[in-house]
From TrEMBL:
<dbReference type="Pfam" id="PF09148">
    <property type="entry name" value="DUF1934"/>
</dbReference>
<dbReference type="InterPro" id="IPR015231">
    <property type="entry name" value="DUF1934"/>
</dbReference>
<dbReference type="InterPro" id="IPR012674">
    <property type="entry name" value="Calycin"/>
</dbReference>
<protein>
    <recommendedName>
        <fullName>DUF1934 domain-containing protein</fullName>
    </recommendedName>
</protein>
């Protein structure tokens, strides 16, 4: 059995990189599907001068998955205090990425279709840190 909620997504992403820091704020509609105790949150990010990005979070108490799809698809997996490896397909070929999750706090009310996620991680490629990320996500019908 599954439940579907139309939700308002409020997302702030902060990125710290050598080339400078960035911050993105999104307030957009999304869809939350609860299936077999797992929540799937999906929405579309739109940025100027870029193609739309389909975003899907898979939300479980101790693990979060993030899929971002536009010209390329990226899948990142997060487990608190653990290193996770993924392959990012680029036009130049595959690139191995690692996420080290420094913070993961998920609060989810499946009956009401509300939740919030605070996710902090370090993204690296070939042993070099690409950036440090903080994702503050909230959603409600």
């Amino acid at each position: 059995m599954s439940q579907t909620f139309m939700v308002q997504v409020d997302l702030t992403t902060k990125i710290w990189q050598d080339g400078g820091d960035e911050k993105f704020d999104f307030h957009l509609p999304g869809q939350l599907i609860i299936r077999n105790g797992t929540a799937y949150l999906s929405y579309t990010e739109t940025l100027p001068d870029q193609s739309d990005t389909e975003v899907r979070f898979k939300l479980k108490p101790q693990q979060v998955g993030l899929t971002r799809s536009n010209e390329n698809t990226t899948y990142l997996s997060f487990k608190a205090q653990q290193d996770q490896e993924t392959v990012y397909q680029t036009a130049a070929g595959p690139m191995v990425l690692n996420t080290y999750t420094t913070g993961l706090n998920l609060q989810l009310n499946q009956e009401k279709g509300t939740g919030q996620l605070l996710l902090e991680y370090v993204l690296s490629s070939q042993g070099q840190v690409v950036g440090r990320y903080r994702v503050d996500l909230q959603f409600k019908p």
